Inverse folding.
């Protein structure tokens, strides 16, 4: 086991919990920190601190002794949480406070390398009106016009990390995640993202019944399985590029196509009912030209593969909760 200590902020969350497990499998010594423990499986971290990174003293304490930090902690959720506008103040305050505290603690402690998970939500809405041809090249982010205050906070924090790199010599890596999904993610707490929410809806629906989908179903997205997300993060951290860098799939599907793919996996034909609801932009996928050029790699596993694993896990959760998979 390495003597170097890796800190994962947000280790109780979906991506953070999987990252802890991946780094432990690689022989790393890992400390995790989060407000909550992972909800679906025990943390694999050598040490797990339950605490609030909005507290600068707590941030300083957990950063101390770390040689590298992965900053994934944020106030976030799916469209039902982010795009209603009801949570904008808490999202911006909580996430910005976490990043300010963690970065300053890293500066004071002399941490060697810091990873920050930004989001595809930073991209301007005017580049994402056409569901068939959205633009998400990394350098297209300005003039800035994110479609949510969640995206504005992420863009501010990107600039914060790069400012600390310039002014204080921190070695940073800034990635823009595109809709990461997989087993052990939120699926029924109001913060779940589209793949998990739709897998749940299909799992609970009676055979021959119907499910409700927000919007007309023609809005497009790409979705990245958790194992490929982690592969991209670790390759990025080992590179000499600081970013920002898209980490996402280039396999774009409409939401209706996503639902039909889940129905096929479940072998459960259902009727789709489109209803009003929070949507975000009309189209978004990951532009992977830069990651291919810089890392010689890009996510390539088919969406259906990750969906099958996710549906199987969520159907088991539904059954355990007394539902009908």
């Amino acid at each position: 086991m390495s003597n170097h200590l890796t800190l994962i902020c947000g280790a109780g969350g979906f991506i953070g919990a999987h990252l802890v497990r991946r780094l432990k499998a690689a022989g790393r010594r890992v400390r995790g920190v989060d407000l909550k423990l992972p909800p679906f499986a025990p943390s694999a971290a050598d040490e797990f601190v339950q605490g609030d990174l909005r507290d600068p003293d707590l941030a300083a304490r957990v950063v101390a002794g770390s040689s590298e930090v992965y900053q994934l902690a944020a106030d976030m959720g799916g469209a039902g949480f982010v795009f209603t506008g009801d949570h904008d103040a808490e999202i911006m305050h909580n996430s910005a406070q976490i990043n300010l505290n963690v970065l300053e603690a890293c500066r004071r402690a002399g941490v060697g390398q810091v990873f920050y998970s930004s989001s595809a939500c930073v991209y301007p809405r005017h580049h994402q009106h056409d569901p068939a041809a959205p633009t998400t090249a990394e350098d297209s982010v300005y003039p800035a016009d994110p479609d949510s205050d969640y995206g504005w906070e992420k863009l501010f924090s990107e600039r914060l990390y790069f400012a600390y790199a310039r002014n204080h010599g921190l070695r940073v890596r800034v990635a823009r995640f595109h809709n990461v999904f997989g087993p052990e993610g939120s699926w029924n707490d109001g913060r779940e993202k589209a793949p998990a929410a739709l897998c749940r809806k299909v799992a609970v629906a009676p055979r021959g019944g119907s499910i409700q989908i927000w919007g007309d179903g023609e809005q497009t997205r790409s979705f990245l399985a958790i194992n490929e997300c982690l592969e991209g993060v670790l390759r990025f951290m080992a590179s000499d590029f600081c970013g920002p860098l898209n980490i996402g799939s280039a396999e774009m599907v409409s939401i209706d196509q996503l639902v039909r793919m889940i129905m096929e996996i479940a072998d459960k034909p259902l009727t789709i009912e489109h209803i009003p609801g929070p949507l975000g932009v009309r189209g978004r996928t990951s532009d992977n030209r830069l990651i291919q050029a810089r890392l010689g790699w890009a996510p390539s596993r088919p969406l259906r593969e990750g969906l099958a694993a996710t549906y199987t896990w969520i159907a088991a959760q539904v059954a355990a909760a007394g539902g009908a998979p």
About this structure: The first strand starts at residue 5 and ends at 9. The chain has a mean pLDDT of 94. The chain is about 40% helix and 15% strand. The domain at 5-180+223-247 is CATH 3.40.50.720 (Rossmann fold).
